[in-house]
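Recall from the previous lesson that a structure prediction takes nothing but the amino acid sequence as input. Here we apply that procedure to Arginine--tRNA ligase from Skermanella cutis. The sequence below is the only information supplied.
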Amino acid sequence: MNLFNEFAKDLRVILDDLAARGQLPGGLDLSKVTVEPPRDASHGDLSTNAALVLAKQAGLKPREIADMLVERLKDLADVVSVEIAGPGFVNLRLSDDTWRQRIGDILVAGVTYGNSSVGAGSAVNVEYVSANPTGPLHAAHARGAVVGDALASLLEKAGYTVTREYYINDAGAQVEVLGRSTYLRYREALGETVEIPAGMYPGEYLKDVGAELAGRDGPKWLDAPESEWLPAVRDFAIERILAGIKDDLEALGVRRQVFSSERNLIASGAVEDAYQSLVDQGLIYTGVLEPPKGKKPDDWEPRPQTLFRATRFGDDVDRPLKKSDGSWTYFANDIAYHLDKFRRGSPILIDVLGADHGGYVKRMQAATTAVTGGQGSLDAKICQLVHLLQNGEPVKMSKRAGTFVTLRDVIDQVGRDVVRFIMLTRRNDQTLEFDFAKVTEQSKDNPVFYVQYAHARCCSVLRHAKDADPERSLNPDDLAANAVLSRLEAPEELALVKLMANWPRIVESAAQAHEAHRVAFYLYDLAAAFHGLWNKGKDDTTMRFLLDEDPELTTARLALIKAVSIVIASGLDVMGVEPVEELRG
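The prediction returns the following tokens.
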């Protein structure tokens, strides 16, 4: 149960009743009214901005509305006090029993605690990674993969219906270069001495592909004209590299439902269809773009071009859809792709993109709005760079990849759970430093260890409790039924419970904001609160979890600890990280 949502519903009932009584105008827009924890916990348990956001609409001072709300809110069950703070915030304090009851909710729900129906089954397409199939995934791809995968899981937990998609860029010049580069490695596998010229892919990974092609086809292509061997070699290379990409994603715990081919999309006539849709709306014209101030964009040419009226939808300039030779631009293909995703039933589109796509966002959002008739929306999550370090020093490049460190290199060195967790410890739009030494050290400064250690400590306490009393039931349902939770009276215990009760709100707010990193931030805070409670017992024996002289309090604390382990596991599940029950140094 999202306790904050429950009080928000009560608040809306009160506001509707005040309007019915004539104390407030009817028809007020309540969309910006919130109920959430106050920034300073000393101010109370819940805070609402209702008086502030409704004052202008109602033609009243915030304090006047706040006074009305205080009179009504103080009569709600579980509310022990209501106060007005600052310019008109209304802060509530709830009874301790109200918070303690959340432990029972957690124990009964298990890792499904925090599941929400706020998404109401709305269809969302999350497209992520979508690396060109020209080589193995590199470390930077790990960030987009984790951000996209965790976001998809978060949306599912919040009640959305999610499609996880990979867009295969298997059309265009880059895959032609791949075909020619593979052909050189094919000739090399057949005994020739080759040089890899500038502009080709130099990575040694293509040696394996070339050797496999030579093993399958022998010298078949050696004397064939390029027009014959290029399509065959290109397709073979794409297939093999894509298989490797899928294996790497599987190693990272990323599983996909849909792989969409750009080449198939073009062949189906989807680009012409999307273009005609824009023509029918009067959004296509022939014109000459003015050269922009400063650096010229790569799609600007001083000639008449077929342009999309992107500026009507918030873009900086109108955008060309055809090249000089009459072929489609990449942008035209991408418009067709986003229309295709929309037509497959996903009005909410999320693209997780690399740092080099910053200038792409406005035009694609404009095009999505236009081509879907305003029925589709696009949120682009730009993942900034990942700097790989070893004790603060840059990591050397991978010989196998040629120019970068591969994703598999990183997974093999630290494990997939570490990779997944660390990639969510910064906002996606912030640069992230991944220091191989730091992410594996056992300290508070390593969030992976800190959160996992909290879960492992919970499991350790539960094991010791079972060892001390083999007949004791640690089944969550039994703990929920038998624990006398009123025995949990210490401020640190209640603070921990309040933090756990915030998890359903975190799930909903993070899902609606499309910000999976909030889960990692929340888990770190929860772990810190738990470790603080653990350390309290070192100095004060009455705060220890297992008390031989007080089995009732012990059972209550075991219920609390079990709840902590469940919430941590629930959060890690969203992140795609396996909770550990024991850590070894």
